[in-house]
Input
Amino acid sequence: MTDRGILVRGGYVLTSSTPEMIEDGAVRIVGDLIDEVGTWTDLSARHPDDEVQGDRHSIITPGFVNTHGHFSEGLFTGIAEDFTLWEWIEAVINPTAPHHDHEMAYVGTLLAGIQMLRTGITVASDMYVCDPADKPVTPGIVRALDELGMRGVVTFGAADRRGVAVSAILEEHAALREACEASRLSRFRVGIALMGAQSEELFEHSVRLSAAHGSHIHLHEVREEVTAVRAATGRSPIEQCARLGLFDGPTIAAHCVWLDESDRDLLAEHGVGVAHNPVSNMILASGVCPVPALRRLGVAVGIGVDGPASNDSQNMLEAIKMAVLLQRVDRLQATALSARDAMAMATIEGARALRLDGELGSIEPGKQADLVVFDGSSPALANVHDPFQKVVYCAGPREVSDVWVAGSRSVANGEVTNVDLVDVVEGSRPLARKLARRAQLGQHSLLAPS
Output
């Protein structure tokens, strides 16, 4: 006798596997795993006692994999729109970095995480950029993700060029790693804010830690970064990372906009995953990641929403759509990237970029039961001619009905299930004011009115 399961029904099940689509299909969940995938007729006949969710008009996809973001920006969104990245770091990130604490990390993650869940994100690869405080800051991320019911691949975005002691940075890494080891849903990686933001001593520590835990780093986001590292070392940041051994461990590299042919080949050779962040790259005028060229080389390219202040929205569906449109307007070709490409990047390819594709990223028996159910009764999804194009071009947060993580609903009928939305919003306001006051954001020369 098998355990009683849950049948999640959909008019279309988009598997990110083979077959890529099942019409009038269903996904059977038992515990935290996908037990079976098939037609509704078959599964409902063989499991008549199962609980049923979804309906014949729903669209079901794997949970979305957000390959890059910054929960550290959760409390200061909607400012500094006039700056390119280098100016934006000086105006926003450097002033706020010394003033984060555990409670800010916790509440900022809740605030951003709610928005992520409501757009179908089930796992967030995050880099929390701050300076260490008297007490560990980053375990607040794990605490929040556990409460939300969302997976995390989380890092402390370490930098010591602002004068932070290397020993304090290593202690923050250790505190975050310990929190992840006690979590059911989060795992630890080593964060490197930027190659140029770390001293040689700290980067050597980062490389050693990454061999065991993997790393998450910004690479080739803007021309200035590439120029500075090349001037100092004679190599591009990617060449330097390869030479110093960072890529010997699993690496996810965010942005990868300013690449030459040698850089692209090195990413492919070392199996480095790339996190493409189309919305923030447009907001910060950083440029366009050569997504089609990377994918032709076999590089796994996922999609990231980036941080709440560098994107200002934590809407994965927006990022998926923009990933397609940005390539098309850059290449002036309607075939530069397709809806099916984008769906793969948001699911199985993002999982592969994070080395998680054996566990999640597609709807297959034995994988984690991470699913998104889109409401087919919504006007936006009323008439489905191509379900891939419907999800990528037409769906928004209102169309996300249910989000399953490890077999449990973290979103039901469009609302998060595990935290009180009003409490989170109200609790964020005094913390946001305190952080802005401590960082003197309104008084910064780049932000002050002229």
The chain has a mean pLDDT of 95. The two ends are 73 Å apart (CA to CA).
